[in-house]
């Protein structure tokens, strides 16, 4: 296991609660962030896929970063998603994250134009790195099922050579563990941090030399994930991984974002958590009931909200 990673450990891909007009509810989001930090999370991946970031405008994303910090969430634990299709927007978001004291930012590749060349992607990320400066570490987001633009070994090799110390890690949400391990084998010796987006892979990744996880299911399973992380090399961690894999299977049995919002709504007793921006839609009651049954079968009891 990598022991000196900036975001080493358990990072939740944090949900974004909404007001009735679908604006971001910063008070609820901050309370959820504090609850996560008190229940096993080492860091918080805000404004990612699970956080509906691509349904939010640039100004809204900045408001989220600023608003959470104003509400007492430490900037040092925040790993905001700042990648967009536009270089200028990505730079604006990443610079603001740096100014606020965030230590890292997670960048999707430019995902609208399909089949970009490696040269094109290198030029895009190179422009971002050059314009942002060196005050914040850049993490790349490999999620080809969603972005259709992979982050390859070849691309990372070139970026690490051209911008030493700037590109610090990768989140792999491909679900392909062989790919995740390939990142570790090629780059971990250089201090490059590899995070899985699949909770089911956490124990194996830690044993392979990875840094931890950044996952949606950590919104409800971070306490179990923290046991896996703390016991990565013993039987306690192996046993906790079985439960963690069950949690992952349960939460992915329904559409992930509305399902997690329903779970948090039930846990907090606050139905407003089910608000979600289109094109996502709230879970229908039968699907919600099936999700609750699957999650409860894991035997996990969430700690109360303060």
Notes on the protein architecture:
The structure is a single chain. This protein is an alpha/beta fold and 306 residues long. It has one domain: TIM Barrel, CATH 3.20.20.70. The protein has 12 helices and 7 strands. The protein has helices at 26-37, 58-70, 87-100, 118-132, 144-147, 153-162, 177-187, 202-208, 218-230, 235-251, 256-268, 285-296, and strands spanning 9-13, 43-45, 104-107, 137-142, 167-172, 193-196, 212-215. A 7-stranded parallel sheet has the order 2-1-7-6-5-4-3. Strand 6 (193-196), helix 8 (202-208) and strand 7 form a beta-alpha-beta unit. The radius of gyration is 18 Å and the shape is globular. 47% of the residues are buried.
Task: Please describe the topology of this protein.
Layout: E1 9-13, H1 26-37, E2 43-45, H2 58-70, H3 87-100, E3 104-107, H4 118-132, E4 137-142, H5 144-147, H6 153-162, E5 167-172, H7 177-187, E6 193-196, H8 202-208, E7 212-215, H9 218-230, H10 235-251, H11 256-268, H12 285-296
Parallel strand pairs: 1-2, 1-7, 3-4, 4-5, 5-6, 6-7
Helix pairs in contact: 2-3, 3-4, 4-6, 9-10
């Amino acid at each position: 296991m990598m022991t000196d990673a900036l975001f080493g450990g358990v990072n939740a891909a944090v949900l974004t609660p909404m007001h009735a007009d679908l604006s971001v509810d910063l008070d609820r989001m901050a309370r959820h962030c504090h609850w996560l930090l008190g229940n096993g999370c080492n860091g918080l991946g805000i404004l990612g896929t699970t956080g509906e970031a691509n349904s939010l405008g640039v100004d809204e994303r900045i408001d989220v970063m600023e608003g959470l910090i104003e509400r007492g969430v430490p900037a040092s634990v925040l790993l905001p998603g700042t990648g967009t299709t536009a270089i200028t927007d990505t730079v604006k978001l990443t610079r603001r994250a740096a100014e606020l004291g965030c230590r890292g930012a997670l960048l999707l590749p430019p995902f609208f134009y399909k089949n970009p060349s490696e040269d094109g992607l290198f030029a895009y990320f190179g422009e971002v790195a050059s314009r942002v400066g060196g005050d914040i570490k850049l993490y790349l987001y490999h999620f080809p099922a969603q972005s259709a633009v992979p982050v390859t070994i070849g691309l990372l090799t070139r970026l690490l050579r051209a911008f030493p110390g700037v590109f610090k890690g990768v989140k792999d949400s491909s679900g392909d563990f062989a790919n995740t391990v390939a990142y570790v084998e090629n780059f971990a010796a250089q201090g490059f941090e590899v995070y899985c987006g699949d909770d089911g892979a956490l124990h194996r990744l830690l044993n392979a030399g990875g840094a931890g996880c950044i996952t949606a299911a950590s919104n409800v399973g971070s306490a179990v994930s923290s046991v896996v992380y703390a016991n990565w090399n013993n039987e306690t961690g192996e046993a906790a991984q079985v439960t963690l894999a069950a949690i992952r299977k349960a939460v992915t049995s329904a559409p992930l974002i509305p399902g997690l919002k329903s779970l948090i709504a039930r846990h907090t007793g606050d139905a407003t958590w089910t608000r979600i921006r289109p094109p996502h839609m709230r879970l229908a009651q039968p699907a919600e009931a099936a999700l609750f049954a699957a999650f409860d079968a894991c035997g996990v009891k969430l700690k109360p909200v303060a």
